[in-house]
Prior knowledge:
The chain is mostly helical. It has helices at residues 5-36, 38-42, 53-62, 67-77, 83-92, 97-102, 114-137, 163-191, 201-225, 238-271, 273-279, 284-295, 301-312, 318-327, 333-339, 341-364, 366-369.
Amino acid sequence: xxxxxxxxxxxxxxxxxxxxxxxxxxxxxxxxxxxxxxxxxxxxxxxxxxxxxxxxxxxxxxxxxxxxxxxxxxxxxxxxxxxxxxxxxxxxxxxxxxxxxxxxxxxxxxxxxxxxxxxxxxxxxxxxxxxxxxxxxxxxxxxxxxxxxxxxxxxxxxxxxxxxxxxxxxxxxxxxxxxxxxxxxxxxxxxxxxxxxxxxxxxxxxxxxxxxxxxxxxxxxxxxxxxxxxxxxxxxxxxxxxxxxxxxxxxxxxxxxxxxxxxxxxxxxxxxxxxxxxxxxxxxxxxxxxxxxxxxxxxxxxxxxxxxxxxxxxxxxxxxxxxxxxxxxxxxxxxxxxxxxxxxxxxxxxxxxxxxxxxxxxxxxxxxxxxx
Length: 372
């Protein structure tokens, strides 16, 4: 087995940092909006009327990338969205696979397929709204656990071994992640229409790698050294709100990196590109099943692989792309896994089952859909 560890790790560090650029825009943007309107939001138990909740969730999921589902997870945690709307968001999202179909992905050098993107988005939107509405209509509330922030100890004198860890998270890591997020923001926004900052391309690669390394160090320190995993739902000042945003960014990027390493190792090393391509070129029924299971893997790696296969492999069925899209939860599943594992597993399992059903229905309608 010819496997170069360092280039493999480096590529995944860079890819995680690239995704982190989009993630930070979403999380910091929502944090600033929420903080500026906190007094008004406190008076609101839900965003919009009950009947509109699944529509709001589905529209968040339609947003290209994973920002919409990350926002939906945050709003669900704060009880601003119903479980049905959260489910609708995850059913509708394509994750980073949307950028592949739009031809604006840094992870796949393939031509866009706008018709494929449009068909999958419309199908996901319809299914998401219907299923989310049914979940709310039957009163399904999920397993949300609302955590309270731990009492903070007095900080008169801090001589314990955790003092440096606290200094790293509160000072070094906090400002580094914010600074890198600001640096990556213009390039991340320009990438949405396939453009970029070519003059600082090499520097951007190093900054993306640094983003991943700092985020992983921050999350591991916060989670296992300081054992501080609780989130506070209200903050007296902007820095407190941004601190929670940085925690979420670090957590998501850490899980994205782990997810990419696992998914790419399985596909590129254990299975092999040739065998994977052979699997994705087999019978339509088998391809739908494989695409759904690959799409259901945490993160965006699975859906990116399915989208690339759809664009590059001849006769790849639209039904398989639809199944992968419905099954995928994108990177938005990571904050949900960290805060509400039961809901995350429930949504993943339900989305996979639904993806298989819808995929087979789409396959039966293959003459109408065609291989767009």
